[in-house]
Amino acid sequence: MTMTRNYILSLVALLISIALGVSIGAVMIPISALWDASNESSTNILWSIRIPRVLLAGLVGAALALAGAAFQGLLKNPLADPYTLGVSSGASLAAVATIYFGFSSSIFGLFTLPFFGMIGAGVSLIIVLAFAKLVDRSMKMETLILTGIIVSSFLGSMISLMIALSGDEIRQIITWLMGSVSMRGWPYVKMIWPFITLGGILIWLNRRELNAMLFGEERAKYLGVNVKKSKWMILIGGAMLTGAAVSVSGTIAFVGLVVPHMTRMLFTTDHRHLLLLSVLNGATLLIICDIISRTIIAPTELPIGVITSFIGAPVFAYIFFKQRRKKG
Amino acid sequence: MLQLNDVVGGYDDAHPVIKNVTFTIDKGKMIGILGPNGCGKSTLLKLISGILPLQNGSVRIDHKVAQSYSSRELARKMAVLPQLHNHSFSHTVRETVALGRYPYQQGIFSSWSQEDENAVVESMRQTGIEKYATEDITYLSGGEQQRTFVAQALAQKSALLLLDEPTNHLDIEHQKQLMDLIQFEVKTHGLTVLSVFHDMNLAALYCDELILLEAGHIVAQGEPHEVLKEKQVEKVYHTKIARISHPVIPKPQISLLPSSYSQKATVVSAQHINILSDYVLVQTPEPLKVVSSSLHNAGIGWYDTFMNRTVDEYYMCADAHEEMERYIQLAGFIPSKTVAMMTAVAVKHAIIKEYEEDGLSIVVVVTAGVGNAVDASKSYLRQPLWHIGTINIWVFINAILTDESLLQAMMTATEAKVKAMADEKIMDTIAQTIATGTSTDSLLIAATQQGEMQQYAGTVTKVGRLIGRGVYEATVEALRDYKRAKGMIE
């Protein structure tokens, strides 16, 4: 069956990218080091640096792609991405403020940045939803999009303000904003996976509802969908995914917008499969982009956000072109 | 099945769109909602389907208040087909139809049952969209998309179906297909349908009952003929209309009257009657309203070309209608605008007479051949064979005639003809009695529909007096002409 083929293709691509991500780097490590512990330094690099990095890249990629697919479906807008609702701006602002004010907490230690990032994401989501509900009781999709734009441009201006006023921290802030998964290690992986798992489940539970909502809230309601409940589940699930991803890796562009589109064009528009396939492909794309970002001009590492757009845009353009030509 | 009691609601609590609407729909009925733009038709559907909250009153489905159903339960009771919209993303046709089974799927890993599959396959077959099953819905035409959504609604297997202008954007072929399909479901499976229509005529054809809304109130409810009354429709829509009967089935239809429709002044006089070599011809600048028993284009209609054609005594043709149509075309006239008769009498024997009284004028044209004269009261003695010999009578009236007076004019003219036959002592050769006409007579009454309105045209009315006298005198003259030609009199 074609759907089985789609899953196999995506899974194989993911496994290959993991294998590459684990072995390629400043030191080439054979994949066999996974089970052959004879070379201690290889095993060490593998388990303490490479694997957590690949996992983190994969988790972030999966989270952004899934949130993107869900938001595009929910908002029925092909331009929507995980950042549309302003959640990422909240996370970014909190993170930038943390750097700018040089704020550090002994309780959170290393996690001060991601912790405040997540709080920022949560607060901005609450502001967006509360304001949207205030404007329009039924919380139409258009209201949500506009509210998201209002909130994120406002938060964006505050980020710009801090950048403008910052001195030595500017490089750190910019690097963070462009996104990176380097030097994070296991603690970050451990910190975000529960949020990503929970957010993912919330969205996946609504895969059929998302299919129905593509025809509009009204039709979905006629089909028996509890639109209100599904909308809340998807919004909160998506915000958890986005907040978790942004708080550890910054605002990595393009993945959340484009992976769902690529998956739709190559495989299916049916959310029952689209969501899972986006997870696999999002993870693959970010792992590959991470490999490139750290090897292309090694030993310098590029921000991963630069690579995602640099590689992603032409690939997307190619698929887009082929697809439109085929359909005539 | 569906009961609305004193329903009030809309978008704004201070100004409800729907005000105190109450009605009940029985199972297995198709009900149409009509009304001008902005009268609250779609709002009413949204109140029933629960998209908008009720401000007052209740909506009951199967004797239970609609709000007491869960989303899925409600979707199993009631399917709704809103107006067609564009979509940014798309599903295949099959996926779209399969979504109709959503209310039957429960649990985290709900499986697709055989019943789900059957419902989807059946509804795709009914709507004739199986061949598009794997196609992307955005690549289909409006009609195909609408059929896909109808299939989705049918797959829901609900007993109640709400439709919002289901035939919008469809051509008449697809309108008919869709309405036939829905009507079939109503008649055979007892589906109950409530549908908003813009097209009153379509609603009249398919609905058992109509509800006419005006500014959120019901102004009329009942069978189509009770609701689509000329005065009522004119009042609600602020538009001049004419109500007519459907020519084939007993349903009323509504016809618009364009306000800027103007006619060139048309008066038929004796000069308009042209005697050509093979036919008598009248052409008028504007079509006349005609009721006739002609060979070509009999019945009631509007025509501007009138032909009485002489054929050979031995004219035989398997399909006289088709031959006549070809003849009209070859003669350079438009068959759909022409009324034509046939006679064996040479056109030079056509009698043309003109009458005028009190500003009302008529023209009578008669050709008479009575080789086949028959006493209508004794015609049962005859074999039903076609013989040559016909009296063709045309009456052109320069006035406005109602349908009533057109038919009365037919009677008056016929009576005058019978009297002429009697006075000329034309015999039915078989019954040996005085004949009343021939077996193939034709009569045509044509009114210019300009000038004075003639409500009636019985024998003693203004126009009836002219017709009676004119037809009698012209027919007598034509009969004498015939006798003379046959050598029966000098």
UniProtKB/TrEMBL annotation, chain B:
Domain ABC transporter span(s) in chain numbering: 2-240
Matching Pfam families: ABC_tran, CbiZ
Protein's UniProt keywords contain Transport: yes
GO molecular function: ATP binding; ATP hydrolysis activity
Keyword terms of this UniProt record: ATP-binding, Nucleotide-binding, Translocase, Transport
Gene3D superfamilies membership: P-loop containing nucleotide triphosphate hydrolases (3.40.50.300)
InterPro entries on file: AAA+_ATPase, ABC_transporter-like_ATP-bd, AdoCbi_amidolase, P-loop_NTPase
PANTHER family, A to Z: HEMIN IMPORT ATP-BINDING PROTEIN HMUV (PTHR42794)
Protein name per the record: ABC transporter ATP-binding protein
Native source species: Kurthia sibirica
